[in-house]
Amino acid sequence: MKTLDLDLAARSYPIYIGAGLLGQAELLTRHVAGTRVAIVTNETVAPLYLAKLRAHVASLQPVEVVLPDGEQYKSLEVLNRIFDALLSARCDRRTTLIALGGGVVGDMAGFAAASYQRGIPFIQVPTTLLSQVDSSVGGKTGVNHALGKNMIGAFYQPHAVIIDTDTLITLPDRELSSGLAEVIKYGLIRDPEFFVWLEANLDKLLARDAEALAFAIHRCCRNKAEVVAADELESGVRATLNLGHTFGHAIETGMGYGAWLHGEAIAAGMAMAADLSQRLEWLTTAETARIEKLIRRARLPVRAPGSLSPARFLELMAVDKKVQDGRSRLVLLKHLGEAVVTDECPRTALEATLASMREAA
Ligand code: NAD
Ligand code: GLY
Fold first, then answer.
1. Distance, CA 239 to ligand 2 centroid (Å)?
2. What gap in Å lies between CA 114 and CA 139, rounded to an integer?
């Protein structure tokens, strides 16, 4: 097992990464604050992994909340089911909430923990590649709104993140690829050496080579922990973690939540951000080609859906958490391995990217 620490003074927490960690009861129970736990999971993950967790906390009067599976259920309505269960079971403020699942469960359970009785402790147990490399770390929690992705939420840090890499064995191929989008993101925004490693080792990741996956998860969590420690509430550098997300969130909202997986939308969004960066003469044609090639090799899309017109895209992009005082801001690549946040992208260049980076309708 490897352990990283996310350094946030009094709210610092460990990120444990290793094979078989779900079997280690003490790793979990040492982070339980009171004498009661609630486990939030979904109907796909519950039959796979809930029994293992339940066994560790059997003496802690566990409450179990099994949500429907899917991005379309990441909503305030479904969130309420967690509150219903906690209140019905008379859970108090020292109940520790455990999120067992992918990013949807993690974001929803985290937001429930942030708001139930104004805040209860929680632990992230991520089970998808995407949640293991990104969403379980850093304390962004929340739900979608019909008008915009992740628009309702809170920054609220977990007490620990427990990453059992063995859970990836049951992950569908499409979901593995979706997670690779966020993996590639770290190479692009701040870790060019890792980008080169990915070019050499992507096939191992696709083949679920345990050593390669463990290396990539650790490297991504290390990158994320450094960024979050420097800028927890996203007043600066943390926004670079959103490379491809302004485009990607527009795709997810515009196509209907769940139609494109989060990582698929982010992959196309990163290719669009690279194209725009090339138009600004920050990236060379050769660098853009390398980026597209790696994303394609990860079995991910590099074009936006043709059914979203550039005009509709611009409308959707206006609902973005990076908008400040009415001005849109975009994360672009100054170099391969260095991201910048800018509100000075010429409209003509953006329109050219939107027009050219679409699948045929
Ligand atoms: P997800 O949670 O929908 O999980 C993907 C699918 O895999 C689901 O069907 C799930 O039930 C299933 N699954 C989970 N673990 C499994 C396992 N071990 N074996 C088999 N099936 C398994 O999607 P995701 O890709 O994990 O997360 C995407 C979400 O994360 C989006 O809502 C996105 O907005 C959010 N996100 C949040 C942050 C953050 O910082 N909080 C960062 C990135 C993404
Ligand atoms: N996934 C972006 C962030 O955590 O800031």
1. 7
2. 10
Helix (H) or strand (E) holding 266: helix 262-279
Q: Which ligand is nearest to the CA of 43?
A: 1
Catalytic residues: 118, 140, 182, 224, 234, 238, 242, 245, 249, 262
Type of residue found at 351: E
The Cα–Cα gap between 55 and 39 comes to 12
Ligand 1: residue of 130, 134, 162, 252 to mutate (most ligand atoms within 8 A of CB) is 130
From 67, 98, 70, 103, select the one nearest 82 (Cα to Cα): 67
Closest CA to ligand 1's atom 2 = 102
The CATH architecture to which 173-356 belongs is Up-down Bundle (1.20)
Q: Which residues line ligand 2 (CB under 6 A)?
A: 134, 138, 140, 238, 241-242
In the chain, ranges of CATH 1.20.1090.10 domains: 173-356
pTM of the predicted structure, to 2 decimals: 0.97
Per-residue pLDDT tens over the stretch 271-324: 999 999 999 999 999 999 999 999 999 999 999 999 999 999 999 998 877 777
Q: What letter does residue 68 receive in the DSSP assignment?
A: P
Cα dist. 165→7, 186, 210, 280, 283 in Å?
Answer: 23, 19, 8, 40, 35
Pairing relationship of beta strands 160-164 and 13-18 according to DSSP bridges: parallel
- Tell me the per-residue pLDDT of 232-258, one tens digit each, with 9 for 90 and over: 999 999 999 999 999 999 999 999 999
Tens-digit pLDDT profile for residues 150-193: 999 999 999 999 999 999 999 999 999 999 999 999 999 999 99
Indicate which atom in ligand 2 lies nearest the CA of residue 224.
Answer: 4
Query: 2-170: which CATH topology?
Result: Rossmann fold (3.40.50)
Q: What average pLDDT does this structure show over 17-43? A: 97
